[in-house]
Sequence to fold (292 residues):
Amino acid sequence: MSAAVNDKGSLTFKDRKTGLVVFGIFEILGGVFTTLIAGVMLVMMLSAKDTGKLTGNAVDASAFLPAVLMYVSLSVWNFWMGIGSIKVRRWARTLLLISSWVWLVSGVVAISFFMQNPGVSASEAQQVPPQAQHIFKIVTLVFMAIFYIVIPGVMVMFYGSRHVKATCEQWDPVIRWTDKCPLPVLGLSLLWGVGLLGMPLSIISGYTIPVFGVVLSGAAGAVFMLINGLVIAYMAWGMYKLKVQAWWCAGARQHSLTPTGVRRQETGVRSWKSSTYAELDKIIHVPVLATP
Fold:
């Protein structure tokens, strides 16, 4: 690695352009992988009708649409970030650092939940030998640790390095939109924005959404989702612009989702999830997909 020096000849930072290119290539390879998964899911969705005829069960192909769109979105993201990292762009470093932190934190939460509930029901636990359960848990934990801790952890350390930051600033001296907002605030703004992008999928469920114990659908559900979407859009934009009103709006919205309100929605959420998972269960015949 080459090192940059200032006018006095003293060392300032190590040029990490080669590392940015390598990480960018891995990002693109990740995009290729998610594209293949999206293709498999798309084939499953298109063949759902024929599969239903073979199994004798009616299958709703739209149940696969969220997964297809998710993997397509991941593919676009990976290709875009990979190219940006290879070209040593400031925005790519910032966005990859934020996404890596989200990935890492989500992984820690996922592993914590898995430790509490390893995914084996009480009836299945009686049928599976204890040694087999132990092996399953260890293998799953190793895979989750690599995928959810090691990989995003390495990315956080690399893209969070001051040398990488300085390298991007040297090779890309233009002030980008990601530089106009503090990193944590930008991350929150982007998270709200991503949530907003997923709202059109509500069309699949007929705009069905549980709201404090009452399940809204049809026109009422569509109106509620539109209002909620406008609020989220304002929060994402306002946070990026560092507007205090957006933080008050976010606080008020989150306060409305109190634990009591969440518990009151539990029945409606489980009912909607059960109907969605049931469609997938008809195709792949995995009983554990059904909600408890």
User: Anything to note?
Assistant: The beta strands are 3-5, 11-14, 209-211, 214-216. The two ends are 54 Å apart (CA to CA). The mean pLDDT is 78. The CA atoms of residues 7 and 191 lie 41 Å apart.
